[in-house]
Structure formats: C-alpha cells, structure tokens
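Need a sequence for this fold. Nothing fancy.
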C-alpha cells in the first residue's frame, strides 16, 4: 500500500479496494508464469520442437525416413539433405522428425505412469498412515535403494526383443518402445510419492479437511477433492521434470544399444549409430543434430518446470 493510501480516510480506502477486484489464484499464477522470462523462452522452444516433429511428419513420410541409398552414405548437409545422411544413406532430417516423435511419446507417456503411481502411493500412505503408510514407504525406500539407471539397463536387456512390433495409427513401432515406457514409468515414481505424502500429512490436519470430514465426506472425496488439488503445484512441476528425465534416460539406454530398436528411430538410437564412426572428424553432422534436439528439448522443459514452480509457489509474492 502506498503512502497516499495509508493517509487516505477509510471511505477512500474502501473505494480503492472496490476498484481493485481480487484476482483468482489461477490468474495470479498465470501472470507470474508469463513474467518468467526463462519459462517463456523454454515454452517457445518446446512449442517449436513439437511443431517440428508434427509438421515435419506431414512433409516427410515414414517411408522416406527409413529409405536407404548406400550411394548417398554419410553425405554432409546440403540443400537436398539439410542434416546430411547416415551410414546407409537415410536422410537425418527425416529421421530426427520421426525419432523426435518417439522420444517425446516415451517422455510424456512414462511421465503419466510416474505421476499416477507416485501420486496414488503418496496420497494413500499420507492419508491413512499406520500399517499402510509403513508398507508403502518401506517398498518405496527399497525401490530408491536400487540405482535407477542400473535397473533400467538390466530390465531393458531382459525384456528387449521379447515384445512384437506394434501397429498404431498407421505406423509400426518396435516393441522396445513399450518396454522403455513401462520401465521408465515404473522406476521413477518414488521421489514424487514421498513428496506427495509429506504434503498430505500436513494438509490432512487442516481446517478445511477436518470440516469436510465432519460433514460426512468420504475418504475418496477428501483425497480427490481436497488433498490432491492442494498438492497440484508439486505434481505439475514433477510432471514437467519427469518428461525431461525420461527423454534423457531413453537416450542413455538407446545409446548403449538397449533402448528403442530398429525399425523405429529415436534421437537416442540415432546417436548409437553415429558412435560407430570417427564422428568428430568424419561425420559430425551425424551426432550434432539429434544431440542438439535432445539438449534443446530437455533445457526447454526444465525452464518451463522452473517457471511453473515459481508461479505455483504460494510463498511467491502475489502482487500483479
């Protein structure tokens, strides 16, 4: 409040407050997010990458992305092939478009699994407590004690090649895509469950929850209508960062030859193919473009996650 407002009579103050209508929490958070420069840059980059893989698939067919011509093997970038060609003459631009679709699908779908499991486990453990809390949290801690990357590599090696190719939306996906999605989703929910549990432990003693319980609301309604909406800020931020983590993890295992398998392309397995050559000296374009796309995607998602965290943090100044 300004000095003029402090010195104004009560009637004038009432007029000032009437002239400044209260803004909803959603509008306040949106305003803070839109003022977050890094988040806006990240959002623009992320939208650009999504348009790249979506619009690009309307220009290049999947058959063109998989078409090989060994006479064009390892051609540098040119007007005909802006990103150059790979070891069997396939166009890397088209490969990164369809590979980007797979990497983003893996990131978003595995994130949905992670959020579903982590939120459910954390909310149930925090709300009911007792034996249920003990069992769920001990299982969570046991999962956390296993290095996630090691578990991912072991499970990818064990299940890889055991699931047939999948036909979906007119495309053929390697069964390894489903394996990677399930593995990433099932091995990344533990941190979120502990965070949600801590939030629920605090919120379930709040006045509005006690009032809802006194009015006869069921446990299910209290959890879904009161506790989870008030934990949504944490869940949304975890969701954005979960996508970035999943994309990087897929790139790790694909780079080691245990991730997405042919004929399906991903940014990670394009890098796997590139490592067979003296890539720094002989074919730098082979690794440069998929690496750059991974870097931009992960950075943009992290920037958006930072912006959402700041916008949804109730301790942040809420003034316009």
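Here you go.
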């Amino acid at each position: 409040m300004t000095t003029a407002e402090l010195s104004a009579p009560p009637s004038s103050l009432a007029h000032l407050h009437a002239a400044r209508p209260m803004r909803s929490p959603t509008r306040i958070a949106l305003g803070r997010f839109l003022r977050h420069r890094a988040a806006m840059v990240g959002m623009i980059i992320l939208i650009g990458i999504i348009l790249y893989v979506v619009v690009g698939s309307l220009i290049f067919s999947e058959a063109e992305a998989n078409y090989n011509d060994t006479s064009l093997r390892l051609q540098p970038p040119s007007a005909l092939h802006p990103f150059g060609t790979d070891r069997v003459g396939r166009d890397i631009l088209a490969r990164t478009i369809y590979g980007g679709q797979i990497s983003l699908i893996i990131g978003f779908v595995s994130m949905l699994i992670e959020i579903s499991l982590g939120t459910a486990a954390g909310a149930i453990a925090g709300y009911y407590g007792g034996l249920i809390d003990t069992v769920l949290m001990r299982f969570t801690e046991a999962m956390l004690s296993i290095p996630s990357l090691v578990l991912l590599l072991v499970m990818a090696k064990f299940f890889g090649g055991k699931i047939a190719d999948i036909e979906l939306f007119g495309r053929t996906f390697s069964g390894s895509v489903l394996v990677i999605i399930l593995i990433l989703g099932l091995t990344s929910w533990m941190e979120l469950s502990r965070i949600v549990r801590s939030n629920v432990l605090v919120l379930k003693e709040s006045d509005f929850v006690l009032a809802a319980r006194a009015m006869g609301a069921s446990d299910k309604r209290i959890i879904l209508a009161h506790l989870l909406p008030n934990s949504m800020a944490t869940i949304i931020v975890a969701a954005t960062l979960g996508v970035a983590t999943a994309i990087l993890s897929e790139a790790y295992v694909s780079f080691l030859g245990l991730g997405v398998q042919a004929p399906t392309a991903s940014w990670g397995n394009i890098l796997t193919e590139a490592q067979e050559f003296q890539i720094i000296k002989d074919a730098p374009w082979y690794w440069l473009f998929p690496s750059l796309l991974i870097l931009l995607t992960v950075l943009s998602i992290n920037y958006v996650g930072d912006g959402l965290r700041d916008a949804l943090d109730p301790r942040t100044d809420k003034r316009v």
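For context: Residues 24-63+88-312 form a domain with the MetI-like fold fold (CATH 1.10.3720.10).
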